[in-house]
Every structure is written in C-alpha cells, then in structure tokens.
C-alpha cells in the first residue's frame, strides 16, 4: 500500500443565518498499489496495452486481495463522511412503508406481491378468489431462502390449472438461475431442482410441463466465461432434467445468443424467438395440436423486432417494427405467416407503440415524449376509447387473461409514488385500488419537461424534478441520470432514493437520450455503433443546459448511470472532466475493446459494434472506451465506481480496470474510489438492506464532494432559523 493522495476538501457552508463559515475538512486516503503486468494485444496492426488484464480473473487470490484492499480504502473514506449515518436513517425511514403489487388470478386463488416495508425481498401472498383479501396468507417468502436476502426470487410461472408453480431463484445476484417446482396446494417442492439456467422464461404447455432456455455451462468461471449458444428445452413433469427435450438451438444453423420459447394462451402454438443480439429476432411457430408438426418460419432475419401478441384460432396478431420503426400490429394466418401476407391491424403512428391484451381487447400503449397514452381496441381493430389516466406519467400493466372482466394497472411519475388502479374493461372506468402510505408529500415537489438542443441540433427531451420554490442560483446539488441505449426508454417513475435526494434540495434530471426507445427504432439506431457519440453529446448538452439555465453549476453537478449508463458516465467524464464535480458510474461497460469476450457481451454488438469488426470500428471504440481514455495529468471529477462481485451481466473487471486507471493517473485532490458489493450482481434481486446502504454511500459521497459538511436540508433549516 502506498499513500497516493491526501484529500483536502475546503468546505464553505452556512452554519447560521449570520452567514458564518466553517472550513477545512481533511480525509486521508490510502489506495492499494495495483500491479501493472504488461499485456499487449495487436488489433489491426496497432498495439494496445492492457496492464490490468489480471483483474479479469475473478477466481484468483490476487483479484480477491485487490477487491478487499479497495473496499477498505473506500469504506475508510466513506466512514469519515459526517452525515452518512443520517442519510441511511432517512432512507430507512422513508423506505419503511407497505408496498403491494397488482393482484393476479391463478387457478382457484388470487395472488399478489407484498413487502411490509424493509423486507429484503417481496413476499407472495394469496387468498381464495372471491374471499376478502384480508384473508390472504403467505404463499412463498423469498426472505426464508437465505438470512441476508442474497438469494432472490426470479420469475414465476403457473400451470394452466394453477396447481403447479415453477419459479426461479438467483444466488448472489447472478444471472445463472435454478428452477424449483411446487405443488401449490401443499406448497411442497415436488421435483428435483433444475440447474444451470440463464436468461430464461418458463412457459407452460397445459399442466404437463414447461419450456425454458439456457446455455451449456461454460468452461472456466461461470461469472465471466463467454456464453453464446442459447437453447430452448421442454421439461415434462415427473422426469429428470437430463431427459429434457432440446427443442431449438444447439446446431450450427440454429446458433443464437438469445432464444425463448412461449406457448399461446390457448395451448395451440409454441412460439420460438431467436436473436443474435439484443435487437432484432427471427420468429418461428409450431402447431402443438398436431403431433410431429414442424416449425414454420414467420420471419427469417434479425433486421427487426417481432413477437406474437395474440391468436384467435389460426389468426395471428403480431407486434413488429419491420417497415414500421414505431411499431404496428398486423394480422396473418398461421398457415402462411410470412411478411407479404401481413395486414395492418393497428397501423404505425408517430408515437412508439407497446401493445398488450386483456379481457378480449387490445391495449395500445404509446409514448408521447416519454409519457404514457393508452388506447383500447376491440378484436376488429375498432378504437373503443382512450383510457383516462390519473395524470401525466407512466402507466403499466394493461394485461390480463382473455376471460377477465377487470385489470389492474399502475401509475407513477417522478413525484407520485406508484399507485394501483382497477379498470373495468367493458365500461372503461378506473378506480383507485391501492395508494401507498408514505412519508412523502408530492405537493411539495414539481416535475417539468424541457427540450434542449444537442451538439448536432437534435431536440432532446428532459424531465427536471425538485422542490417547489427552488432558487435557480447555480448552487443546487444536481444528479443528471442517463442511459441512452438498447432501445430502453426512461419514463417517469417514483423512487424512494430520489425522494431523499430531493428532500435535501437536490435536483433530479433525466434526459431521453438517443440510443433509447422513446422515439422508436430510428431514435435507437441514432445512438448505436458509429453514432454512439451522439449519446454522449446528448448527455453533455443536458448538463450544459442545466448549467446555462442556472439550475446548477459544474461544482454542484453529479452524473450517474448504470450498465450501458455506466459507459455513458465513463465516456462523458473522460471527454469532459471539467463539466461535473462528481461521477457515479455503476456496473458499467467500460472496456469497449473486450466487452464482447465476457459472458453474453457479444450480444450487445448491435448497439456497440466490436473491435474485431473493422479497423474503422476498432478506432471508433478505442476513441471513447473509458478504460482506454483515462489520461495522465488530468483532474477527473470525484468518482465513486460501484459494482458487484457476482455481476455476470457486465463483469466487474470493467469497473476494476477503470478504477485502477483513474487511481494511477488522477491529478488533483478529487478521490477516485470503487465500492464493490459482495454477493451482489447487476442489480436485480439486491436486498433492500444493501440497496439502502448503497444509496447512503452514493449520496454521502456526492454531497461531501460538492462541499457540504452538513446535509443541505440542515443548512437550510439553520438559515431559516
């Protein structure tokens, strides 16, 4: 260990209404001495150094020791933040309210998810359909899987009669899952556990068995070794996993990275979706009513996204963006289902469509500048009504079985905690079903959408949320959060953690960057491969807008994002290090020259391209890859890299190497730390206790490096006093 940095934070805060100041808070940081072991790759004739390649070995004693030493340095710093405990206490208090999900019917019972407040994992309850919900009993409690909550419940799937449940579990946040099979009457596990399953749904055929997907177990580390040959299997109840039938995949002509099998609600068809990347898929259909029937091809290329939404007999309803970037619904007969026979059912519009079915109707959910609009159609394609929503925000859950008379949907925005509404499908009337009892008053906050211009003149929307009456003086602590990739849309939703941030006088701003799905396939494609810089430019322009409009300034701005958003933060902070005070890259894709060599990373090539594609693509990736663009003699913002040691989606080596580069080359006094959560993965299933601790650390680090020695809300109280 060697001392590389003595941090001296000069803090000037108001401690009374007389504007007295207090200064000088010193924290000493000892960074581990990270070994450099020279590794050279020659790519298109260019030598590329990778001195921290050894950190990719997640099973080595050296990596384990490095992780331990880095965490000691990081927590040594975080332990000295005076209000970290206060933040944790406030997060804990605000988190501690009852959260209940929408009810759903399976067999003779109505089920729902519930968390009493601070339970690490949600619990499934049930009651006999028709009885009072107050009679509900615990059906499945994932908190009993492991005391610390690090074994979580993944997906659930009930047989058609509701008497058998298949459910998956994740250990330590890993994407590798196990599937257990339960008798729902006795709650007993009735078969051997299925193992080594990854990126899988579970779709029942009648009550006889179910389809699932997995890869062959990789050689080497299961947390980092490449997986790129997905397969669909059928598990028949009463048989061993070794006897499961291989349905699709496993041959050279059927090699795909993501394959899913699903059965239509009437048990008539098996649908197979096969993809080589996270965008675009082939689609096949098999008639399960005819023994030994063959798979029929609906679409034989991956240039578009397509799925089967519904069927009435042999009439199929398909959702697709083929020749319709914002998506449309088409109909076709299963006997001849290729594109030349498609007929528009719900045509494409200028807004992005996300369709669903419930109670014998279609529900067309549109995004209008990232805000929900819902239209209801009958099976003849006739518009029945626009669903009247409770406000401006995000609505979800317009799905139910065909025989249902009502559905439940959720509604939320940045200042409205998620509430559940019951919707009468025939009459179109909504009533509030459940509103959370939370210590947060939405009336004290405001959320508004603005549009700003990016570097190339593209208009980009952004929603800015904060306390009402906030003074635009350039000194408000601000988190700018972004993603910008994989056709994923950031729509308004309430977050307990964000509420705590805004209580401190913080601003939370979310731009809808190119690369996302807010404006359809064209918007997505505009942020991919050789156009990826558009995403970073959009994010930088959002920061510049917030500064120019005096919401904040560079001294009070933090940028944050996870996964592809971690790449966004890493690229932005290395391109414009002076623009922000704090950078918070979480579980980020940070080594763009090697990302495709780990786990399922090769499937991200639609968005990124790979360094093997061409000299031009290699040069482009190397030009923004965060690991390869940390430079000597540059003062980077205060940085807290966060990752999990069981992240097998974006392996932690990305974060390890980036943190090592920063610590080696950082100039100036800003800390560059990495917080590595143990028994945690990419995020899904993280116990509530760990989540609260993470946010206390992230917010404490952010505010402290913005110069706050006490919480901003405490300063405000003193000034008012």
What key phrases describe this protein's structure?
single chain, 721 residues, alpha+beta, Rossmann fold, eight-stranded mixed beta sheet, five-stranded antiparallel beta sheet, 11 helices, 17% helix, globular, disordered N terminus
Description:
The chain is of the alpha+beta class and 721 residues long. It has a domain at 40-92 and 440-706: 3-Layer(aba) Sandwich (Rossmann fold), CATH 3.40.50.1820. 17% of the residues lie in helices and 34% in strands. The chain has eleven helices and 42 strands. The protein has an eight-stranded mixed sheet, with helices on both faces. A hairpin with a 6-residue loop joins strand 20 (269-275) and strand 21 (282-287). The longest helix has 18 residues, at 61-78. The chain starts with a strand and ends with a helix. Residues 1-24 have low confidence and may be disordered. Belongs to the peptidase S9A family. Its main location: periplasm. It is an enzyme of class 3 (hydrolase). Keywords: Hydrolase, Periplasm, Protease, Serine protease, Signal. This is prolyl oligopeptidase.
Per-chain topology:
Elements: E1 2-9, E2 25-31, E3 40-43, E4 46-49, H1 61-78, H2 84-95, E5 99-100, E6 104-106, E7 109-115, E8 123-128, E9 137-140, E10 151-158, E11 164-171, E12 176-183, E13 188-189, E14 194-198, E15 203-205, E16 209-215, E17 230-236, E18 245-248, E19 258-263, E20 269-275, E21 282-287, E22 296-299, E23 306-312, E24 315-320, E25 328-333, E26 343-346, E27 352-358, E28 361-368, E29 371-377, E30 383-386, E31 394-396, E32 406-413, E33 416-424, E34 430-434, E35 445-453, E36 459-467, E37 478-481, H3 496-503, E38 507-511, H4 520-525, H5 533-548, E39 557-562, H6 564-575, E40 582-586, H7 605-608, H8 615-624, E41 638-644, H9 653-665, E42 672-677, H10 688-705, H11 712-720
Parallel strand pairs: 37-38, 37-39, 39-40, 40-41, 41-42
Antiparallel strand pairs: 1-2, 3-4, 5-7, 6-7, 7-8, 8-9, 10-11, 11-12, 12-13, 12-14, 15-16, 16-17, 17-18, 19-20, 20-21, 21-22, 23-24, 24-25, 25-26, 27-28, 28-29, 29-30, 31-32, 32-33, 33-34, 35-36, 36-38
Keywords: Hydrolase, Periplasm, Protease, Serine protease, Signal
Function: Cleaves peptide bonds on the C-terminal side of prolyl residues within peptides that are up to approximately 30 amino acids long. Has an absolute requirement for an X-Pro bond in the trans configuration immediately preceding the Pro-Y scissible bond.
Catalytic activity: Hydrolysis of Pro-|-Xaa >> Ala-|-Xaa in oligopeptides
């Amino acid at each position: 260990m060697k001392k590389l940095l003595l941090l001296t934070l000069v803090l000037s805060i108001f401690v009374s209404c007389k504007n007295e100041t207090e200064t000088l808070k010193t924290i000493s940081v000892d960074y581990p001495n990270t070994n450099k072991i020279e590794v050279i790759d020659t790519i298109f004739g260019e030598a590329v150094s990778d001195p921290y390649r050894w950190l990719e070995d997640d099973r080595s004693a050296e990596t384990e020791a490095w992780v331990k030493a880095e965490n000691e340095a990081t927590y040594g710093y975080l332990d000295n933040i005076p209000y970290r405990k206060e933040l944790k206490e406030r997060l804990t208090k605000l988190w501690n309210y009852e959260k209940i999900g929408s009810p759903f019917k399976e067999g003779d019972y109505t089920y729902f998810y519930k968390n009493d407040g601070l339970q690490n994992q949600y619990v499934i309850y049930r009651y006999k359909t028709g009885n009072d919900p107050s009679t509900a009993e615990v059906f499945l409690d994932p908190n009993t899987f492991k005391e610390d909550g690090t074994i979580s419940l993944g997906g659930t799937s009930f047989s058609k009669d509701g008497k058998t449940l298949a459910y998956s579990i994740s250990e330590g946040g890993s994407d590798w899952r196990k599937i257990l099979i339960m008798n729902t009457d006795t709650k007993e596990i009735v078969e051997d556990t299925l193992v080594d399953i990854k990126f899988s749904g579970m779709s029942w055929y009648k009550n006889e068995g179910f389809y699932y997907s997995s890869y062959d177990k990789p050689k080497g580390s299961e947390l980092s070794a490449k997986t790129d040959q997905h397969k669909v299997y059928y598990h028949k109840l009463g048989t061993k996993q070794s006897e499961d039938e291989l349905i699709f995949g496993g041959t050279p002509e059927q090699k795909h990275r993501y394959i899913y099998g699903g059965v239509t609600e009437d048990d008539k068809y098996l649908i197979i979706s096969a993809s080589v990347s996270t965008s675009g898929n082939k689609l096949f259909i098999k008639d399960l009513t005819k023994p030994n029937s063959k798979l029929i091809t609906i679409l034989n290329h991956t240039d578009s996204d397509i799925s089967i939404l519904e069927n009435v007999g042999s009439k199929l309803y398909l959702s697709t963006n083929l020749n319709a970037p914002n998506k449309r619904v088409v109909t076709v007969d299963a006997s001849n289902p290729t594109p030349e026979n498609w007929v528009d059912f719900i045509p494409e519009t200028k807004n992005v469509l996300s369709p669903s079915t419930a109670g014998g109707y279609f529900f067309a959910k549109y995004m209008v500048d990232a805000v929900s609009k819902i239209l209801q159609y009958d099976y003849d394609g006739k518009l029945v009504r626009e669903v009247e929503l409770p406000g401006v925000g995000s609505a979800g859950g317009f799905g139910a079985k065909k025989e249902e008379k009502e559905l439940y949907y959720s509604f939320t925005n940045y200042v409205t905690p998620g509430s559940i509404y019951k919707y009468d499908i025939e009459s179109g009337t909504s009533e509030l079903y459940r509103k959370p009892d939370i210590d947060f008053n939405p009336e004290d906050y405001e959320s508004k959408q603005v549009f700003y211009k990016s570097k190339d003149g593209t208009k980009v929307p952004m929603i800015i949320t904060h306390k009402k009456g906030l003074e635009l003086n350039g000194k408000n602590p601000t988190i700018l959060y972004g993603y910008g990739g994989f056709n994923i849309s950031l729509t308004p939703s309430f977050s307990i953690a964000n509420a705590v941030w805004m209580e401190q006088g913080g601003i939370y701003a979310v731009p809808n960057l190119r690369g996302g799905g807010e404006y359809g396939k064209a918007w997505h494609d505009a942020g991919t491969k050789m156009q990826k810089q558009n995403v970073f430019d959009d994010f930088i322009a959002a920061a510049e807008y917030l500064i120019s409009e005096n919401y904040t300034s560079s001294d009070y701005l933090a940028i944050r994002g996870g996964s592809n958003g971690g790449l966004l933060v890493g690229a932005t902070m290395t391109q414009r290090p002076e623009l922000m005070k704090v950078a918070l890259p979480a579980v980020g894709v940070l080594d763009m020259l090697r990302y495709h060599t780990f786990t399922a990373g090769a499937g991200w090539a639609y968005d990124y391209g790979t360094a093997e594609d061409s000299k031009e693509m290699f040069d482009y990736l190397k030009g923004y890859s965060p690991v390869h663009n940390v430079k000597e003699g540059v003062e980077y913002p205060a940085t807290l890299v966060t990752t999990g040691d069981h992240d097998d989606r974006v392996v932690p080596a990305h974060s390890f190497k980036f943190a090592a580069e920063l610590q080696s080359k950082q100039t100036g006094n800003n800390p560059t730390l990495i917080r590595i959560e143990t028994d945690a993965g990419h995020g899904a299933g993280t116990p509530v206790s760990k989540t609260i601790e993470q946010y206390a650390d992230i917010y404490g680090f952010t505010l402290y490096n913005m110069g706050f020695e006490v919480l901003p809300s405490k300063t405000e109280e003193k000034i008012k006093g």
